[in-house]
Amino acid sequence: MLNLRPIFFAIGLMLAILSATMIxxxxxxxxxxxxxxxxxxxxxxFTFFVGGLLVLMTFDDRQIELSVKDAFLLTTLSWVMLxxxxxxxxxGVGISYTDAFFETMSGLTTTGSTVLTGLDSLPRGVLLWxxxxxxxxxxxxxxxxxxxxxxxxxxxxxxxxxxxxxxxEKIVPRALxxxxxxxxxxxxxxxxxxxxxxxxxxxxxxxxCHSMATLATGGFSTHDLSFxxxxxxxxxxSGTFFMALGALxxxxxxxxxxxxxxxxxxxxxxxxxIGFLIVVTLILAMWYSMTRGVPLTDAVRLSAFNVTSIVTxxxxxxxxxxxxxxxxxxxxxxxTFVGGCSGSTAGAIKIYRLQVAGLLTRRHFxxxxxxxxxxxxxxxxxxxxxxxxFSVVAFLAIYMATVGIFTVLLTGMGLDLTTSLSSAAxxxxxxxxxxxxxxxxxxxxxxxxxxxxWVLALAMLLGRLELFTVLVLFRPEFWRS
Length: 481
Fold this sequence. Notes:
Strand content: under 5%
Structural class: mainly alpha
Number of helices: 21
Radius of gyration: 22 Å
Strand order of the largest sheet: 1-2
Helix content: 55-70%
Order of helices and strands: HHHHHHHHHHHHHHHHEEHHHHH
Number of strands: 2
Largest sheet: 2 strands, antiparallel
């Protein structure tokens, strides 16, 4: 039986915390003498009322233990409920609920797609709220990835179980210790990123907003031109560095801070991720320089920033790479599927799944050459559990099939194939920009039909919940067991 009381108690607490964050943009608008502060205050009061009511109705002083089934339901309901209430301030400033929910889902899932235009002239409260959505979503994603998903055995996530010796059905890792260390690293990197941005020429407000969007790999900017607005190579290089940090496993970052930076390079996933970024950046930079006559140093900088942005699923842009030529368009489309590391804020398929798929491919070819040879699969110096290869292959199959399904749905709504395919891929991967006049780096998601926005919001949610979490909920066996 599902234990609904602790589930709704946890959701109530999260809503209460969400309501407190709404006060920050209200104070900013109040300081700017902008009347939008009333919308944020009203949304905060209503959200706190509902959250507090849930807490009071479900409070129990006994120790709370969540089973795997409870965790499935909690992760899904928490994202939906938080998005529903976090959209309220946008409605108060005159945005339709469809656009408000799309913007909120994009922010909390750190996708970065936006239906808002004229960002440079929007009130600072709205801009801060968008950045806070990225920041809140980022820490929520990390906690979910570290504490919940490994126990749900979602596409190989059991490789990154917080306590690998725990074989029980209960979600009982060293929760307080792990979450505290993770939050400390996350906040520390946010402060460091904001300070660096400010020292390099951003305003204090831009530095704070962009630091949250960068470390959360969310991509919400305060300017329509994103990083191109600043016209600063130093800011772009710092953005590249911090986006890459946000896409690294936070458990490994904690180990590196306590035991030295060698912990980063000992991790097979980190080595693969950094190596992939370097190789792709150099290939694209050399091609871009030779075909467009751009100085190699500029080509490397532009390639490094935009490749890192797409691979880490951040979605910032420093140039419209769709104007670089067909090779660049094809390459960036493939990069949409890659993603960062497990246990980070990045989305998409993720490096470790691709590495495991590579191990499986190598074993298959080895068997073709030497049928009697026994090949043991290992990752990070440990033998892969027997269920991991199947989980990874199943995830990859479902991921690609889901992209196809959403592409067909969007084409059925009148969108062209390029827009449909790229927007489905970027939404499921929580990337942000796609391709074409509507969803490209210079496009405008606001012109999408309302049904398409709801479809893409669902795709963002599915992508952030690693697909399996939601799909399992639709199996009758889940509810009967």
